[in-house]
Design brief:
alpha/beta; globular; oxidoreductase activity, acting on the CH-OH group of donors, NAD or NADP as acceptor; NADP_OxRdtase_dom; Aldo/ket_reductase_CS
């Protein structure tokens, strides 16, 4: 793969290889706040029809059951799908995590999971939680394990205690919060970076720089942002329940940003979080 990452992002079916050899789709669907029932079922079916193969849920989202149902009804072979879920803060600790995993798997109705993440770095608990994830990984119940919302100091602490290092760190990441230092640290340690809220929930789609670049490529600002993620070797998992938006989000594989455009987008960074700061979580 080249520096810009263009080689692995020419199709929605392209994958990124994690450090343990598992291949993960380079692009996926997040289902935070998508309600169980018809909306979830329709969203996942539309996404799968469009070629999405990575579905990212969490026990906290309270829709694992619906995700499992939708993928079973899809007719797509299980091995072609990549399913992620996460252990929530109140479920952390060694024994609690093992139980939480069983509960998630029961709700999902799956025999194995592709990726299991520690949802937030809960102080005094995440090391024991990680030990449980290592156990599940050794048993082959999950193909890869990782973390979410970990800052560099959390990762350093984890790496100094862990037998297995995380394959991925899923964090809030978008042009207003580009997390350059964290990305560099992850790259040095063979940890892939995945972006939740990759479009920052549409908060800066009116940005003139993005509008200009989008017009040059005949694309939308949202498509330009998603392409920026891919070219920085970040795995974006945009959430949408609108069929037209789900389709728009996939139409990012037929153009590339040049160096000047990438730098202009990089210049938008304000270290601005819209989600919680992982050092100050009280949930």
């Amino acid at each position: 793969m080249d520096e810009k990452g263009g080689e692995f992002t020419v199709s929605i079916f392209d994958t990124i290889e994690l450090h343990n050899g598992v291949k993960m789709p380079a692009f996926g669907l997040g289902v935070y706040k998508v309600e169980e029932g018809e909306q979830l079922e329709k969203t996942i079916h539309t996404a799968l029809d469009l070629g999405y193969r990575l579905i990212d849920t969490a026990s906290f989202y309270q829709n694992e059951e619906g995700v499992g149902q939708a993928i079973r009804n899809s007719g797509i072979p299980r091995e072609e799908l990549f399913i992620t879920t996460k252990v929530w803060n109140s479920e952390q600790g060694y024994e609690n995590t093992l139980k939480a995993f069983d509960d998630s798997m029961e709700r999902l109705g799956l025999d194995y999971l592709d990726l299991y993440l520690v949802h937030w770095p809960v102080k005094g608990k995440y090391l024991e939680t990680w030990r449980a994830l290592e156990e599940l990984y050794r048993e082959g119940r999950v193909k890869a394990i990782g973390v979410s919302n970990f800052k560099i100091h959390h990762l350093k602490d984890l790496l100094s205690h862990a037998a297995e290092k995380p394959v991925i760190n899923q964090v809030e990441l978008h042009p207003l919060l580009s997390q350059v230092e964290l990305r560099e640290f992850c790259q040095q340690n063979e940890i892939k970076v995945e972006a939740w809220s990759p479009l920052s929930r549409g908060r800066f789609l009116e940005e003139p720089v993005l509008g200009k670049i989008a017009a040059q490529h005949g694309k939308t600002p949202a498509q330009v942002i998603l392409r920026w993620h891919l070219e920085n070797q970040i795995i974006p998992i945009p959430k949408s329940v609108t069929p037209a938006r789900l389709k728009e989000n996939t139409e990012i594989f037929d153009f590339q940003l040049n160096q000047k455009e990438l730098e202009e987008i990089n210049g938008l960074n304000k270290d601005q979080r819209f989600g919680a700061d992982p050092d100050h979580i009280d949930f």
